């Protein structure tokens, strides 16, 4: 049982939806990023998605791309990101960390070496945007073997015929991308998302978490009410990008968490 | 190359879209169903005679194919060695090889019922070709172009606008060709229902590298027949410039199984292929990685972050290369070399002066390599070089490089 599985068991018991946040590792620099990440559980965050900076984030909007650029300019690397996770883990042994990013930095590191290091750093799962099920041999299968969850994205273009393929080899949870588009785009409507989540849940026992386009406590509540949880990324990263102090960022996160937990 | 390892170099890619270890389908889930649909439609079209009838009609009557295979007599005499033939793809409608591929993709898009076409462009040649064919068929066209390229390729930007396309200057990242490709992918992921992404080179997720190659292979097929007609035998050496590598792949592909034909791809060496990385020579100066849907050689740092290439030629300014080239490089079926800005500029001028042809800066790189090797080769050695684009678009860049003042606009 990974920390992710344990977290969902705990949430189910408490009858609560999951609140998941995305922040970019090393944005705007290592220290401030670690400070935010360390504060997330206290602000009500159940699962942390830690963004792995990449120069060419093709599935992300401007907010996440700029965050990646800030991090890279401040000297963030894959190794430093694992170091950050490790530093977080020293103080918190229960909040799951999911590393989210693109394949090339991992491929460049070498898959085996990366998996060993990620496990060592206390990473629990991976979301790698540009690795669809067709490329499962690359990282998904080795990651599962190494004891890490491999969390797949399902999207509005994932039709019933394709869904089983997406769910095979997925573990931890399913991340439903609520819109066709990039991160930080227009919001999804709970009315549209609900039936899609139900469609996925009919095909898997895994929790289904919904992300993309959620920016307010109210939206988090609406989306969480029709799923097992909600993800907020760009709205938080925006504030970090504007240079808001950590406590203000965490205050905003706490508001979102309350919304999601009401859902 | 031991023959028992591989019987043919023309069988790729495999069902996973791989050429050896290169290629593949490294895209987000949202795009995956779209590229699977595209693959299915392309596989169907490939064996549909009516598809090729339509292509051939347009190639002949709209593009002006076949392009001539021209014996460059004065160049040959000047270099004093091998006999040099130029495949004149710069004479195509829109002035480059790009339209060969665009026609194929747009006909496919029409068959798939797509009404909106998006494209990325570097030098603007692919953007112009896409805007052109969209105008001909009355399709909406949006072209993503790095803000820096919008500046250095102003004539092509104006051409695209005249042709009714919307040109979107890309400022994300560093505002270059790779960023234009990122933004085109972002557009596609947002507009999945009505939009067709017309990729301009032999890169991207499967089936693009194979599909674009198949459309560009008309270059090599013609060159083969024309050389047979002119010399009664195949060329000894093929040479073409490589950014993403579509004109090169188009020339090379029909000759891959002709073992005696030497194949040379010429990358942009910029200011020199060294640790400063001021070049675009992915094969000579990069290592394998995953970007824009495929595994291929990339310019990247130790952390797997993609580096910006540099070249005087906007069309070669891309940190990757088509995956089939990566495979041909690793299997050693083709050789890849780099030519610097300075060498390319010299070749550009020589071609103007000796042959009365203003070449684009991209094939000027190929020509610079011809200038290097031709003098050492015997007179009966046949070189076929792809003159894949004309240089009108580049005169401002060249003038600047040669310190010539073009007047008030400068």
TrEMBL record, chain A:
Q: Which GO terms describe its cellular component?
A: cytosol
Domain of life, per lineage: Bacteria
UniProt enzyme class: lyase
Q: Does the keyword rRNA-binding apply?
A: no
- Determine if Metal-binding is one of this entry's keywords: no
Keywords of the record, alphabetical order, are: Amino-acid biosynthesis, Aromatic amino acid biosynthesis, Lyase, Tryptophan biosynthesis
Please list the residues that make up the active site. 49 (proton acceptor), 60 (proton acceptor)
Known catalysed reaction(s)? Answer: (1S,2R)-1-C-(indol-3-yl)glycerol 3-phosphate + L-serine = D-glyceraldehyde 3-phosphate + L-tryptophan + H2O
A GO molecular function annotation here is:
tryptophan synthase activity
Q: Which family does it belong to?
A: Belongs to the TrpA family.
**So what does this one do?**
The alpha subunit is responsible for the aldol cleavage of indoleglycerol phosphate to indole and glyceraldehyde 3-phosphate.
Quaternary organization: Tetramer of two alpha and two beta chains.
HAMAP family the UniProt entry points to: Trp_synth_alpha
* Name assigned to this protein: Tryptophan synthase alpha chain
Organism, per UniProt?
Brevirhabdus pacifica
From TrEMBL, chain B:
Q: What is its EC number?
A: 4.2.1.20
Q: Which residues carry this modification: N6-(pyridoxal phosphate)lysine?
A: 98
Top-level EC class as recorded in UniProt = lyase
Name of the gene this protein is made from: trpB
Pathway(s) served: Amino-acid biosynthesis; L-tryptophan biosynthesis; L-tryptophan from chorismate: step 5/5
**Taxonomy of the source species:** Bacteria, Pseudomonadati, Pseudomonadota, Alphaproteobacteria, Rhodobacterales
PROSITE patterns assigned: TRP_SYNTHASE_BETA
Q: What does this protein do?
A: The beta subunit is responsible for the synthesis of L-tryptophan from indole and L-serine.
- Name the needed cofactors: pyridoxal 5'-phosphate
A GO cellular component annotation in the UniProt record? cytoplasm
- Substrates-to-products reaction catalysed: (1S,2R)-1-C-(indol-3-yl)glycerol 3-phosphate + L-serine = D-glyceraldehyde 3-phosphate + L-tryptophan + H2O
- Any one Gene Ontology molecular-function term assigned to this protein's record: tryptophan synthase activity
Q: Sorted alphabetically, which HAMAP family does this protein's record hold?
A: Trp_synth_beta
Q: Which family does it belong to?
A: Belongs to the TrpB family.
Keywords of this entry: Amino-acid biosynthesis, Aromatic amino acid biosynthesis, Lyase, Pyridoxal phosphate, Tryptophan biosynthesis
Which protein are we looking at? Tryptophan synthase beta chain
Which organism encodes this protein? Brevirhabdus pacifica
SUPFAM superfamilies, A to Z: Tryptophan synthase beta subunit-like PLP-dependent enzymes
Q: How does it assemble?
A: Tetramer of two alpha and two beta chains.
Q: Which domain of life is it from?
A: Bacteria
Q: Which Pfam families match?
A: PALP
